[in-house]
């Protein structure tokens, strides 16, 4: 009998007319059986694939401006060595299989902001992202950021960590009465001075405590008298210094006059006695008496140069954040001073005159700080919030202090070893102010930098520079959102 290498059910379909009825029935049943088996196998493969998907860990990611071995390397090491393995273990103990990835970013703060804007606008990016609080309004008004409770649910507002973060620190991430992130660390600003140069000029090197702007100027004059070619005083000004001009320079001076950038009604102040006094101070320092070097302020690398000048004893008085002491001039820092603790002292920035600062204070400070926000497009928003809460728990943040001692916003996490950080935090945090959380702030800050540069470059008088600032501000925020305060007759230049 001839055998064909063709399945019987195929023969049944092609030749069934010629086949006996019983054979046709038998082969047709076999075909149905094969088709049923195929459907069953497909179903089983589908179930298996579904099970594999279900078995895959939930993935969440963190984006930071940090690189192990590079910028903010200690933060990268903390995230890799403490946060990620710690959270994975906690999730596993709770019955969840979670994988956490770190996206390291080595660019500038401005480049990081641009990248986050692109990510959030296109529904991409990490689930958690490091963020500077003053940028929140701009992102919110552009539709790129949502409140924590909208992304993560009510768990965000119920977090017990909020009870350990003072309102002043929570203000760093608040906008229109909504929280948009969790602040982690903060800073304060003060005056640093070189004890060795003070001694050489006959000044009190151990207990220098200026009580007014004039006290600062008098110390700088004596230092310059001792070394006529020197520029002893450095306070940031100009465009090249960027936000450092606004934070370390302008806001410190303005707060010392009792004024802030906006009035009680939220209007931007574009002319005032305090603004004129601050601009006059800049003029005395950089133009009138040349106590500071104006050229340094205008160089692209000017801030680093100011650090180098202080490091090498070419300047003696520097207004900076506490970061400068514990990072920049640390014996292992980028501008190391081997005997830093002996050579460098710090003191509070005084009001223009005693009692004339904001809230009637004798001294002032300004604070910023980094935080983390949730990507509004996160595919795992609850898991992302859980990770964020873990990151900012007291035990986890105490571990961070092992990698980098700093001022933490939580009142139950203190620097374990640094007397400087403990003392500066204790004395200055109650005095501090913060930048306005406003969508127009970045543009306003840029105008402040231009205003100060026009004065230190000798291009405009303080009054003329302030008038240009007022005109620019009307274009930025609208004429109905600015206010000009009366100036004393004949005051200023």
List key phrases describing it.
D-Maltodextrin-Binding Protein, domain 2; 21 helices; disordered N terminus; alpha/beta; single chain; four-stranded mixed sheet; 2 domains
Descriptive notes:
This protein has 21 helices and 17 strands. The strands form 5 sheets. Strands 2-1-3-14-6-15 form a 6-stranded mixed sheet. The protein has a 4-stranded mixed sheet with strand order 8-10-7-11. It has a 3-stranded mixed sheet with strand order 12-13-16, covered by helices on one side. Strand 1, helix 3 and strand 2 (98-104) form a beta-alpha-beta unit. The protein is of the alpha/beta class and 493 residues long. The chain has helices spanning 8-15, 21-55, 73-93, 109-121, 136-141, 148-152, 155-158, 167-170, 195-200, 213-226, 243-256, 273-288, 294-298, 302-311, 322-328, 340-343, 381-391, 394-403, 419-428, 441-456, 462-477, and strands at 58-64, 98-104, 128-132, 174-175, 178-179, 182-186, 189-194, 233-234, 268-271, 317-321, 344-347, 349-350, 363-367, 369-374, 407-408, 432-434, 482-484. It has 2 domains: 59-180 and 369-434, Periplasmic binding protein-like II (D-Maltodextrin-Binding Protein, domain 2); 189-366 and 437-484, D-Maltodextrin-Binding Protein, domain 2 (3-Layer(aba) Sandwich).
């Amino acid at each position: 009998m001839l055998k064909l290498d063709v399945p019987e059910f195929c023969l049944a379909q092609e030749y069934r007319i010629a086949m006996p009825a019983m054979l046709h029935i038998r082969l047709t049943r076999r075909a149905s059986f094969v088709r049923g088996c195929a459907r069953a196998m497909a179903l089983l493969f589908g179930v298996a694939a579904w099970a594999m998907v279900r078995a895959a860990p939930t993935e969440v990611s963190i984006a930071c401006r940090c690189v192990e071995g590079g910028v903010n390397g200690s933060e990268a090491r903390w995230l890799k060595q403490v946060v990620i393995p710690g959270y994975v273990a906690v999730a596993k103990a709770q019955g969840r299989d979670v994988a956490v990835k770190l996206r390291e970013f080595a660019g500038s703060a401005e480049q990081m902001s641009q990248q986050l804007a692109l990510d959030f606008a296109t529904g991409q990016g990490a689930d958690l992202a490091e963020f500077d609080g003053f940028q929140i309004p701009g992102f919110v008004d552009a539709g790129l950021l949502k409140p924590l409770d909208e992304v993560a649910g009510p768990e965000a507002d119920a977090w017990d960590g909020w009870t350990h973060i003072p309102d002043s620190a929570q203000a760093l991430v608040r906008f229109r009465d909504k929280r948009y992130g969790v602040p982690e660390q903060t800073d304060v600003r003060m005056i640093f001075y070189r004890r060795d140069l003070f001694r050489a000029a006959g000044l009190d090197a151990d207990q220098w405590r200026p009580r007014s702007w004039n006290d600062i100027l008098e110390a700088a004059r004596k230092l310059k008298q001792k070394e006529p070619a020197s520029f002893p005083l450095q306070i940031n000004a100009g465009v090249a210094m960027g936000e450092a001009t606004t934070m370390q320079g302008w806001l410190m001076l303005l707060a010392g006059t009792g004024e802030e950038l906006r009035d009680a009604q939220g209007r931007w102040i574009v002319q005032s006695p305090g603004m004129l006094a601050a601009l006059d101070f800049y003029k005395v320092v950089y133009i009138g008496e040349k106590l500071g070097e104006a050229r340094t302020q205008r160089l692209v690398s000017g801030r680093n140069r100011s650090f180098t000048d202080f490091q090498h004893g070419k300047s003696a008085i520097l207004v900076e954040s506490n970061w400068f002491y514990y990072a920049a001039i640390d014996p292992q820092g980028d501008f190391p001073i081997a005997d830093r603790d002996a050579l460098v002292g710090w003191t509070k920035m005084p009001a223009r005159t005693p009692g004339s600062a904001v809230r009637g204070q004798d001294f002032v400070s300004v604070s910023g700080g980094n935080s983390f926000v949730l990507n509004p497009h996160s595919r795992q928003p609850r898991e992302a919030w859980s990770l964020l809460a873990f990151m900012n728990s007291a035990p986890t943040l105490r571990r961070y202090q092992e990698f980098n001692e700093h001022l933490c916003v939580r009142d139950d996490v203190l620097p374990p070893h640094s007397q400087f950080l403990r003392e500066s935090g204790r004395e200055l945090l109650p005095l501090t102010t913060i930048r306005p959380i406003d969508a127009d702030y970045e543009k306003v800050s840029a105008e402040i930098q231009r205003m100060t540069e026009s004065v230190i470059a000798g291009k405009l008088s303080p009054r003329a520079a302030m008038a240009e600032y007022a005109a620019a501000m009307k274009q930025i925020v609208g004429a109905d959102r600015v206010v000009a305060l009366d100036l004393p007759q004949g005051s200023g230049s």
